[in-house]
Design a protein that fits this description.
Layout: E1 9-15, H1 21-34, E2 39-43, H2 49-59, H3 68-92, E3 96-100, H4 103-113, H5 118-129, E4 136-141, H6 144-160, H7 174-190, E5 195-199, H8 204-222
Parallel strand pairs: 1-3, 1-4, 2-3, 4-5
Bound molecules: thymidine-5'-diphosphate (TYD).
């Protein structure tokens, strides 16, 4: 979705719970900063202060009454705010944007997972994002059992550390996770030019290397300058 009016580069991370997405995103951000790139780090749901308030509603396991369509609209409310307040301005300034999840998550979780109409999701995407979308999506693919066992271990750690409960979606049934993963496979087939599937069962450093190779190619193709090059 490269737009010539946007000199920046938009990278998104996707993957099921327990795929190692957060660790890999951290590593990429540290490397980009160390290399002198100016970047904006954001997340969905979350990012902006308003987005973080929406995130609390979405991920609180006390909100089991949240209707699927209300959930869908909240994800897009969060995204519209993220695009307007943070992402579009950053891209205009030529920065690299790294987002933990974006609309592919909505297609996978609300579309395939909850059975909502993908066409309606894409219409909401157009409304919320106004042509802003990732240039490169790094999808960390993980087998359900391995992913869930990692996610459960993480949730137990959060509970032990008395951090807020964010397990509402992690608690879904196995079939839900299988539908989500199949949807990601479908998105990879549909958008081979944008989405890179990475085998997240590989050793952690091999995953990091795959990600860096792809990002380096995109940086070169976008002729991005390092922030330090301006001074
Ligand atoms: P998050 O805290 O980002 O954890 P992780 O990405 O490490 O799993 O959790 C976000 C949860 O929200 C995750 O279970 C996927 C879900 N989600 C959706 O269902 N739809 C969406 O559009 C997005 C962005 C996330």
């Amino acid at each position: 979705m490269t737009d010539s009016r946007r000199p920046g580069l938009f990278l998104s991370f996707e993957g099921m719970d327990g795929s190692g997405k957060t660790t890999q995103m951290r590593r990429l951000i540290e490397r980009l900063r160390a290399e002198g790139y100016d970047l904006l780090e954001t997340a969905e749901p979350g990012g902006t202060p308003i987005g973080l308030q929406i995130r609390r509603i979405l991920l609180d396991s006390a909100n089991s009454a949240l209707a699927s369509r209300a959930e869908l609209l909240l994800y897009f409310a969060c995204r519209a705010q993220n695009v307007a307040e943070w992402i579009r301005p950053a891209l205009r300034e030529g920065r690299i944007v790294v987002s933990d999840r974006f609309t592919d998550s909505t297609l996978a979780y609300q579309g395939a997972g909850r059975g909502l109409d993908p066409a309606a999701i894409l219409t909401l995407h157009d409304l919320a994002c106004q042509e802003v979308g990732p240039d490169l999506t790094l999808y960390l693919d993980i087998d359900r059992e391995l992913g869930l066992s990692r996610a459960r271990a993480r949730n137990a750690e959060r509970a032990a550390a008395a951090q807020p409960d964010e397990t509402r979606i992690d608690d879904e049934a196995a079939e839900f996770h299988d539908r989500v993963r199949a949807a990601y496979a479908g998105l990879c087939r549909q958008h081979p030019e944008r989405i890179l599937r990475i085998d997240a069962a590989q050793p952690i450093d091999a995953v990091t290397q795959d990600i860096w190779s792809a990002v380096e190619r995109h940086i070169a193709a976008h002729s991005l300058r390092k922030a330090s090059a301006h001074v």
